[in-house]
Amino acid sequence: MSVKLRLTRVGKTKQPYYRVVASDSRSARDGSFLEILGQYNPRLEPSVITIDNDKVVAWLMKGALPTERVKKLLEISGAWAQFTAARTK
């Protein structure tokens, strides 16, 4: 089973709100997930990104792969830098 870090859409019609989750790569976008790692709200100005960096780094160390959009969010939150620093030790 390969684990992906991806966005899951929640919210009402035309009011998207996303969760950053760790899920099985075979599950649907809004299907089952293993753990909620954070939230992303693109509708506010500036966009609100709340990510638990410790949980994200733990999943990345176990071999989870982020999607392109999630990787950008992790770079903004600082989790990606924390992961690369932990990986080089």
Which parts are unreliable, with pLDDT below 50 for 5 consecutive residues or more? none
How many strands in all? 5
Order of strands side by side in the largest beta sheet? 4-3-2-1-5
Approximate strand percentage: 35-45%
Q: Tell me, what is the CATH class?
A: Alpha Beta
Count of individual domains: 1
| CA-atom Rg in angstroms | 13 Å
Q: Spell the H/E element sequence.
A: EEEEHEHH
Principal-axes geometry comes out as flat
Summed up, the helix count is 3
Structural class determined from secondary elements: alpha+beta
Q: How many angstroms separate the termini?
A: 27 Å
Q: How can the largest sheet be summarized?
A: 5 strands, mixed
CATH-defined architecture: 2-Layer Sandwich
Could you state the CATH homologous superfamily? Ribosomal protein S16
Mean pLDDT: 93
Task: Explain how this protein is built.
The chain has about 90 residues and is an alpha+beta fold. The protein has a single domain (about 5-89), classed as Ribosomal protein S16 (S16 Ribosomal Protein, Chain: A, 2-Layer Sandwich). Helix content is about 35%, strand content about 35%. Strands 4-3-2-1-5 form a five-stranded mixed β-sheet. Helix 1 crosses helix 3. The model has no long low-confidence stretch (mean pLDDT about 95).
